């Protein structure tokens, strides 16, 4: 499928980089796909957010992507649209790998509630000690197994979940990578290899540094469900 490109300057409406896990996903994909965009940040749980979010998002949630008169909300839907703008490059080229990538992305989108509740996103922080309950530990074990399986399927063709090219599945799990960094998740050697590579990604490092600047200069709270 040929790339059609955006109809205008893309705008991505996001929340705090310290707190908003859903915002991180399309932001990371935009960076990796090389698409230019304007970032509109609305601090969560503030009067400004409640006053302005309605003009950008019909769900009154972030993220939202604006492309001219088109508004796309929900992180996975935005990622799908961005992939279409670039000729399908947001997914693996191989049909079987693409099917698995969609499955693991959907699993992340709708699952792992126990882990996400206990380990809320605090992107700029490290060294926090918050024990997981049994359900949270099961979520952690499933993510570890999922990453390891994806890497085994790619048979060493690259460092990302589906080989040498960053894809939507990697973007969907980027907030989990940051949670693992903040709370010190214990991972198997294969999952640890993926985690280390993801943490070295310059775009993710940029997000982390922006989160730390938010805390330093804005005095924003460090926790959000």
Question: Overview of this structure, please?
Answer:
This protein is α+β, with helices and mostly antiparallel strands. It has two domains: 79 residues, Glutaredoxin (3-Layer(aba) Sandwich), CATH 3.40.30.10; 111 residues, Glutathione S-transferase Yfyf (Class Pi), Chain A, domain 2. It contains nine helices and four strands; from the N terminus they run βαβαββααααααα. The protein has a four-stranded mixed β-sheet, with helices on one face. It is globular. The C terminus is likely disordered.
For the largest beta sheet, what order do the strands appear in spatially?
2-1-3-4
Average pLDDT reading: 94
Distance between the first and last residues' Cα: 39 Å
For the sheet with most strands, the description reads: 4 strands, mixed
Question: What is the number of independent domains?
Answer: 2
Strand content: 5-15%
Specify the CATH class of the largest domain: Mainly Alpha
CATH topology of the largest domain, anyone?
A: Glutathione S-transferase Yfyf (Class Pi), Chain A, domain 2
CATH architecture term of the largest domain: Up-down Bundle
What structural class do you assign from the helix and strand content? alpha+beta
Q: Per the principal axes of the C-alpha atoms, what is the gross shape? A: globular
Regions with little confidence, pLDDT below 50 for 5+ residues:
220-225
Total number of helical segments?
9
What radius of gyration results from the CA coordinates? 17 Å
Total DSSP E strands = 4
Q: SSE order in H/E notation?
A: EHEHEEHHHHHHH
Helix content: 40-55%
């Amino acid at each position: 499928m040929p790339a059609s490109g955006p109809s205008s300057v893309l705008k991505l409406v996001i929340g705090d980089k310290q707190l908003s896990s859903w915002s991180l996903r399309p932001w990371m994909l935009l960076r990796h796909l090389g698409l230019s965009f304007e970032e509109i940040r609305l601090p969560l749980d503030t009067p400004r957010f409640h006053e302005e979010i309605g003009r950008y998002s019909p769900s009154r949630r972030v993220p939202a992507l604006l492309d001219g008169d088109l508004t796309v909300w929900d992180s996975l839907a935005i990622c799908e649209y961005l992939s279409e703008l670039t000729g399908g490059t947001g997914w693996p080229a191989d049909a079987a790998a693409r099917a698995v990538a969609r499955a693991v992305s959907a699993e992340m989108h709708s699952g792992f509630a126990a882990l996400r509740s206990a380990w809320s996103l605090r992107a700029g922080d490290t060294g926090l000690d918050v024990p997981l309950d049994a359900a949270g530990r099961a979520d952690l074990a499933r993510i570890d197994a999922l990453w390891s399986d994806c890497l085994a399927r790619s048979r060493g063709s690259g460092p990302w979940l589906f080989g040498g090219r960053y894809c939507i599945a990697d973007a969907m799990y980027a907030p989990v990578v940051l949670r693992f960094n903040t709370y010190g998740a214990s991972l198997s050697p294969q999952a640890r290899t993926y985690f280390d590579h993801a943490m070295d990604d310059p775009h993710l490092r940029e997000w982390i540094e922006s989160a730390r600047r938010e805390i330093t200069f804005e005095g924003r709270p460090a926790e959000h469900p």
